[in-house]
Design goal:
Length: about 70
């Protein structure tokens, strides 16, 4: 199972908010993961991945349509 995540764009440095957003989850056969929340802390993602035997895949930030990069 792979859990694809990306850094959130509107989290300020030093903010006490979850930093990552789950984008997609893949699995085979009976393996299913239902995600209830949309924002997670890194430690939470690591715990979920360890529990389901999955792997976290960090997606790289991309430029938005205006051409300005994110972060």
């Amino acid at each position: 199972m792979k859990i694809y995540v990306r850094p959130r764009q509107k989290v300020g440095e030093g903010a006490h908010q979850p930093m990552f957003r789950v984008v997609a989850v893949t699995g085979k056969g009976e393996e299913k993961l239902k995600v209830e929340a949309s924002h997670f802390r890194k430690k939470e993602l690591e715990m979920i991945a360890a529990d389901v035997g999955g792997e976290i895949v960090m997606l790289e930030p991309t430029k938005d349509e205006s051409g300005k990069g994110t972060k």
